[in-house]
Amino acid sequence: MTTWITICDTCKLDDWEASGREQKDGEVLAELVEAAAADRADVQTRRVSCLMGCSHGCNVAIQGRDKLNYTLGRFEPGVEAAEAIVDYAALHAESASGQVPFRQWPQGVKGHFVTRHPPLPKPEVEAEAAE
């Protein structure tokens, strides 16, 4: 099953304005994640302008249908971070529940988890709740 990496392309680290860089840190990370995921059939990427995690920038969401979903942040935009994000997303894609044992996590994502979201209820559960 496909796992999606949603990358905030408007994230700016604390030093962004003073740095004089034109490209936002989130844009840099998005380009690197997209490149790292280019040959992965089980991982797709998309960009969004703001995941509302500004105090945790750079942010990504790891999402899969009927699976646990995660928000990760506090990344420095670089090749190592991008590769770790994609490697974790591939493990997420392999997992039936979306949960990946800690011992399998790429080193580059450890310490970057911000939130975990349970999967949305299945339509039949929603219908029962509405009755």
Number of helices, counting only DSSP H or I runs of 4 residues or more: 4
Q: How is the biggest beta sheet arranged?
A: 5 strands, mixed
Give the helices and strands as they follow along the chain: EHHEEEHEH
Morphology call = globular
How many strands in all?
5
The level-1 CATH class: Alpha Beta
The CATH architecture assignment turns out to be 3-Layer(aba) Sandwich
Helicity range:
25-40%
Q: List low-pLDDT spans.
A: none
Strand share of the residues?
Answer: 15-25%
Quickly give the structural class. Answer: alpha+beta
Taking strands numbered 1, 2, ... along the chain, how are they ordered across the largest sheet?
2-1-3-4-5
Radius of gyration: 16 Å
First CA to last CA: what distance?
Answer: 32 Å
Pfam family, one: DUF1636
InterPro entries: DUF1636 (IPR012863)
Organism: Thalassovita autumnalis
Protein name: Metal-binding protein
Provide an overview of this structure.
The chain has 131 residues and is an alpha+beta fold. The protein has one domain (3-130): Glutaredoxin. 31% of the residues lie in helices and 19% in strands. The chain is built from 4 helices and 5 strands; from the N terminus they run E-H-H-E-E-E-H-E-H. It has helices spanning 16-19, 25-37, 79-94, 123-130, and strands at 3-8, 43-48, 60-63, 69-72, 113-117. The protein has a 5-stranded mixed beta sheet with strand order 2-1-3-4-5. Helix 2 crosses helix 3. It is globular, with a radius of gyration of 16 Å.
